[in-house]
Amino acid sequence: MILGIVKGTVVATRKMPELVGYKFLLVEPVFGSKKDTIVAGDNIGAGVGEMVLVTTDETTQHGLDHPSPIDAFIVGIVDNPPTLSK
């Protein structure tokens, strides 16, 4: 699981039917390099600037409404973000 901050959105005007209903967000992991920014599916309403929990790999399918070709998915919005020192 990845702890990250939503940095932006990805707009896809055409996509597979299995992806309809999912929003796609750019998530920058809190730990690691900014080069590790990922695209994660979302259906819980996360927004830019929020800290989120992202599941990846084969566990992603457990968070989806139906099987979809998504390998990173937002499963939680952090209500009380921890204070992080860099």
UniProtKB/TrEMBL annotation:
Main location: other
Lineage of origin: Bacteria, Bacillati, Bacillota, Clostridia, Eubacteriales
Source superkingdom: Bacteria
This protein's name: Ethanolamine utilization protein EutN
Localization terms from the record: Carboxysome
InterPro entries hit by this protein: EutN_CcmL, EutN_CcmL_sf
Keywords: Bacterial microcompartment, Carboxysome
Ranges in a coiled coil: none
A Gene Ontology term for the protein's cellular component: carboxysome
